[in-house]
């Protein structure tokens, strides 16, 4: 004989309340297995699966009245169609949550790295190939700061329009000509590669030695710092051998100041004259 539960016991079993059970009863979603002479409602253990099914549909956004109509319908095809619809919903939700989890992991790593990297110090490091997703961006030279902010906002909007989420860190990629001319109004924005990144927007940054230089400050401070980098490379006898990368390390996410950024500059350089093959090759002051 199946075990019977009072409304309170059944609500506890289902992790809900008696009020919810009574509400579902009024809607015709789930009714007590029987009502005693004393007026008490009793539920059967087999009804737990029915309640779980209701919760499943509700969690996926199906209105209660639609759930009731489906469960009370004698049409098997309607019930099967709803199940298939929910299967697709949860598949998409799983992918969305996986991407959000990955974004949280990236943010954690980026912010930790941003605060561990020495600021205003030049050092070399051998780096593996990095594949990124690129987005051409251009704006007026006189509005560099506003343009950089607008380009970042446009990048986010483009991802959202495509039903995707950008990874971190995002940044700007400049050819040597623009880097040496201090022309930061033209270049390409980039973000980490994703499985669904279109082939035409994929770009591989070659492996090799890169000169790292990180600076913290406002956008105005960053622009001033970037324009000093060519002379800093020359001071140390380093030659730029590819596009320059500027990565926004998202320091604003860990401070109370909005206009406060840590930017990592990665400048590919020739390794012909390097004294060592170690990972961190050498570090020098910026002065």
**In percent, how helical is the residue content?**
40-55%
CATH superfamily of the largest domain: Regulatory factor, effector binding domain
CATH class of the largest domain: Alpha Beta
**Overall 3D geometry?**
elongated
Mean pLDDT: 82
Written as H for each helix and E for each strand, in order along the chain, the element string is EHHEEHHHEEHEHEEEHHEEE
Largest sheet: 9 strands, antiparallel
Radius of gyration equals 29 Å
Instruction: Tally the helices.
Output: 9
Percent strand equals: 15-25%
* DSSP E strands, number: 12
Assign the CATH architecture of the largest domain: Alpha-Beta Barrel
CATH topology of the largest domain: Multidrug-efflux Transporter 1 Regulator Bmrr, Chain A
Structure at a glance:
This protein has helices spanning 7-13, 18-27, 47-59, 64-71, 76-116, 144-161, 176-181, 219-226, 229-235, and strands spanning 4-6, 34-35, 41-44, 121-127, 130-138, 171-174, 186-192, 202-205, 208-217, 244-248, 261-268, 280-285.
Features:
Multidrug-efflux Transporter Regulator, Chain: A, Domain 2, 3-stranded antiparallel beta sheet, 9 helices, alpha+beta, Multidrug-efflux Transporter 1 Regulator Bmrr, Chain A, 12 strands, 2 domains, 287 residues, 9-stranded antiparallel beta sheet, single chain
Written description of the protein model:
- The protein has 287 residues and is an alpha+beta fold.
- Helix content is 41%, strand content 24%.
- The strands form two sheets. Strands 8-5-7-6-10-11-9-4-12 form a nine-stranded antiparallel β-sheet. It has a three-stranded antiparallel β-sheet with strand order 1-3-2.
- The longest helix has 41 residues, at 76-116.
- 22% of the residues are buried.
- The model has no long low-confidence stretch (mean pLDDT 82).
């Amino acid at each position: 004989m199946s075990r019977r539960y009072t409304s309170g016991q059944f609500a506890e079993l289902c992790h809900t309340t008696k009020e919810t059970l009574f509400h579902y009863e009024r809607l015709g979603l789930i009714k007590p297995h029987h009502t005693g002479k004393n007026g008490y409602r009793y539920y059967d253990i087999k009804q737990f699966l029915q309640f779980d099914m209701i919760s499943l549909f509700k969690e996926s956004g199906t209105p209660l009245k639609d759930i009731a109509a489906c469960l009370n319908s004698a049409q098997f095809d309607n019930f099967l169609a709803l199940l298939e619809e929910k299967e697709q919903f949860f598949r998409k939700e799983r992918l969305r949550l996986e991407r959000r989890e990955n974004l949280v992991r990236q943010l954690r790593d980026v912010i930790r790295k941003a605060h561990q990297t020495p600021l205003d110090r030049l050092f070399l490091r051998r780096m593996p190939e990095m594949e990124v997703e690129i987005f051409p961006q251009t704006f007026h030279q006189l509005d560099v700061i506003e343009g950089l902010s607008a380009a970042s906002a446009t990048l986010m909007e483009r991802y959202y329009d495509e039903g995707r989420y950008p990874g971190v860190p995002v940044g700007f990629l400049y050819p040597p000509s623009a880097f040496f001319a201090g022309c930061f109004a033209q270049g390409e924005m980039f973000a980490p590669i994703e499985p669904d990144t279109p082939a035409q927007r994929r770009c591989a940054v070659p492996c090799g030695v890169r000169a790292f230089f990180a600076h913290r400050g406002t956008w105005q401070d960053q622009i001033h710092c970037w324009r000093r980098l060519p002379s800093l490379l020359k001071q140390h006898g380093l030659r730029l051998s590819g596009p320059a990368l500027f990565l926004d390390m998202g320091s604003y996410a860990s401070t109370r100041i909005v206009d406060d950024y840590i930017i990592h500059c990665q400048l590919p350089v020739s390794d012909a004259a390097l004294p060592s093959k170690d990972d961190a090759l050498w570090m020098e002051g910026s002065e």
